[in-house]
Amino acid sequence: MSENLSSQIEEYLPNNILKFINFASEKAGYLHQELYLVGGVVRDLFLGRPNFDLDLVIEGDAVKLAHILADETRGKLTDHPRFNTANLSYSDFSVDVAMARSEIYSHPGALPTVQPGHLINDLIRRDFSINAMAICLVPDRFGQLIDPHSGKEDIDNKYIRILHSNSFVDDATRILRAIRYEQRLGFKLETETEKSLRYNVSMLDTISHDRLRHELNHILIKEPVPERVFARAEELGVLSKLHPHLKGNGWLSQKFARARTIFRRISPPTIYLCLLAYNFDENELNRFSARLNLPKSLAQAILHAVQLRNRLNELTSEQLQPSDIYHILHTYNNQAIRANLIATDSPIIENHLKTYLDKLYYVKPILTGDNLLAMEIDSGPLLGELLQALHDAKLNGELETREQEEQFAHSFKRGQLNHNRYSPGSPDPT
């Protein structure tokens, strides 16, 4: 007899979400269609892990049901009629609604051909047994567990297990997902699953650059301790398929952990990516960016991180003026600078990088180019030199007020001031 989880669902889900799924089931019933809660939320219910991003599968018209729900619950609707899927967004949870489907892979690495199916078809297309469970939401069977692949048993045994022998061949992104789930949940790859993964590592070459980048983003963004995933991926021979010189070693683990400690309020994925490629040369970096088809902004950030790494020796002196620090760093992406702050072992360099990020980056003169033109300073090279001199003096703490900046500008114009010796309050030379 199937396990009934109605009481667990009522304890697990907040009242507003429980009310929503009851309402959704009622509306599906009006359409003479059966509705199921599937995937990650079922897994996390057993694990006691909060997960309020719901996946609903309906044996019927998902888009029609989603429109009914959006109209009556004021959810923000995004639908995809071509695929018979939709998403509903609310302030504190989201819902994906999809037609039950079966999938056929024309060749390894291809996106599947999708056609309508039943719940059992939908569950067999999933990646791992722990994600291939469903809970029936039909009122007279509410809470019934549908578990054709023994996912609950694998949760109890803490296993990640594929559903069939060609799983990693059909879609090699499952290799990376298997490692993600293993490390996130503290599980182990089931013996035959690990054998298949090791044997089929080369199938990652069948996956498009964009899909590989998507999976890497999931590791960097969704995993609380991504360095564990990279360490395990290296152990399994997976990491080198993304780039032959990638390492998931102790250095990376130490630096990732440090990034989270230092930059708690800054989203770290770009910093992580810079650290991941930190020890590459520029040729290796170009290969890495091409392998993942990185967006221009990300490719530039990791390039800047490596280029700045090669200049850090210019920041080893404690005697540097703030303007010197600024001129070394201001052309580099701030995330690349943060990555170097994490990577360096020099307290002096770290202090200079922090000074730039926390203070110097924000320093600007009060006077603008228009202000200087209004003071009858000619446009051209002199104006540019004066703006630079003003900024340097401001960086070095030599100017504080607008009056001091105007005095500095007049003196600079007359060529009677060595601005490196200027100090606030000194008399305007006559």
Let me know the CATH homologous superfamily of the largest domain.
cca-adding enzyme, domain 2
CATH class of the largest domain: Mainly Alpha
Share of helical residues: 40-55%
SS-based class: alpha+beta
Residue runs with pLDDT of under 50 for 5 or more positions: 416-430
- Average of per-residue pLDDT values: 91
Shape: elongated
CATH fold node name of the largest domain: cca-adding enzyme, domain 2
Count of β-strands: 11
How big is the Rg? 29 Å
Termini Cα gap: 100 Å
Q: Numbering strands along the chain, what is their spatial order in the largest sheet? A: 3-4-5-2-1-8-9
Number of helical segments with 4 or more residues: 22
CATH architecture field of the largest domain? Orthogonal Bundle
Largest sheet: 7 strands, mixed
Count of distinct structural domains? 3
Oligomer: single chain
- Strand % is 5-15%
Detailed description of the structure:
By secondary structure, this protein is α+β, with helices and mostly antiparallel strands. The protein folds into 3 domains: 6-159, Beta Polymerase, domain 2; 208-362, cca-adding enzyme, domain 2, CATH 1.10.3090; 369-421, no CATH class. Helices cover 51% and strands 10% of the residues. The protein is built from 22 helices and 11 strands. It has helices spanning 6-12, 15-30, 40-47, 62-73, 119-124, 151-157, 167-170, 173-185, 191-199, 209-222, 226-235, 239-242, 250-262, 269-276, 282-292, 296-309, 322-329, 334-343, 347-358, 369-374, 381-395, 402-413, and strands at residues 35-38, 53-58, 76-80, 85-89, 94-99, 101-104, 113-116, 134-136, 145-146, 159-160, 188-189. Strands 3-4-5-2-1-8-9 form a 7-stranded mixed β-sheet. The protein has a two-stranded antiparallel sheet with strand order 6-7. A two-stranded parallel ribbon has the order 10-11. Strand 6 (101-104) and strand 7 (113-116) form a beta hairpin. It is elongated. The N and C termini lie far apart (100 Å). Mean pLDDT is 91; it is low at 416-430.
